[in-house]
Amino acid sequence: MTSLSGITPSGRLTLGNHLGALRRFTDPDGFYFVANLHAMTTRHDPRRLATLTREFATLMLAAGVPEGTVFVQSDVPTHAQLAYLLECTSYVGELSRMIQYKEKGNGRPMTRASLFTYPCLMAADILLYGAERVPVGGDQDQHVELARDIAIRFNREYGETFVVPQLNKAALATRVKDLANPTAKMSKSDADDAVGTIRLLDPPDVIRRQIMRAVTDSDTEVRHDEANKPGITNLLEILAACTDGDPVELAKSYASYGALKQDVADAVLAVIEPLQKEYARLTTDPGAIENLLAHGRDRALEASAPRLQAATRAMGLAGST
Ligand code: TYM
């Protein structure tokens, strides 16, 4: 069952991205990419985009994403090509309902048109490869659902062409919260120095300090209770995700917030430090990274071309007979 996922280089990678998505990019036959085309749906700085794209690709390799599966989206033109075809099968009504569009753009005249059509590009990413599994955090579920709807409709109207992806299975830490504001998502688009956002490449002492200063709740009981104790619940979920534990069970072993925070910091650093070491090692050999990405690009191009061609033909475009 082919797995596929992408990460948008719109800010420096966070612990949320890693726990919710990146560490689940494990299929040696999968397709995992830096979604740089998706990073242009809001105002962007071209130089920063180029730098972040390279940083993300290197971090994916450092995180152990299987070699040959990693590529940069813009290197594989089939994504943008299929996206246009899918725009021609999607409706303004369904795209207007996307939460991300409603939050970031709806109603503002200077909103980029690509923010509106972005879910069609994401559907193209998924459908090009016949991916059934799409490991993503909870904030992307609605987009995967739309990709399913688009695939089902396309198959019905133009003939069986696409595999319908499955809905994301509930995994641990699909919604890591901001440490300073535990009712909000930890987001890479927050300011680089935001105290509640753990960045994968921040120095370990900074990360430890951030965790020790995480906002907690007014009483002292360690309990998993999202509604009444969002701060502690978030820490328990991070700990559980880093140690493959159960957040409700883990809560029982703590009598104080301090001890919990110490263990969370240790567990997070045990995940992040090896990744940082591998990142540092990889950056000493830019040529090797280049080669890996070229290999990933060629493989992705080869795997995606037949489905693009099938969709092109099915829609009756010139040269398709
Ligand atoms: P992006 O770049 O916003 O996020 C990358 C992945 O990280 C997950 N994530 C989180 N998981 C848990 N807790 C959090 N606080 C948290 N924040 C982010 C996201 O859910 C995502 O899985 N549109 C996508 C990228 C994309 C894609 C695709 C994904 C483009 N094409 C095709 C899957 C398939 C995005 O912007 O994710």
Automatic annotation (TrEMBL):
SUPFAM superfamilies: Nucleotidylyl transferase (SSF52374). CDD domains: TrpRS_core. It is an enzyme of class 6 (ligase). Keywords: Aminoacyl-tRNA synthetase, ATP-binding, Ligase, Nucleotide-binding, Protein biosynthesis. The keyword Protein biosynthesis applies. Signal peptide: none annotated. Its EC number is 6.1.1.2. GO terms for cellular component: cytosol. GO terms for biological process: tryptophanyl-tRNA aminoacylation. One of its GO terms (molecular function) is tryptophan-tRNA ligase activity. It comes from the Bacteria. Transmembrane segments: none annotated. NCBIfam families: trpS (TIGR00233). Belongs to the class-I aminoacyl-tRNA synthetase family. PANTHER family: TRYPTOPHAN--TRNA LIGASE, MITOCHONDRIAL. This is Tryptophan--tRNA ligase. It comes from Kribbella soli. The gene is trpS.
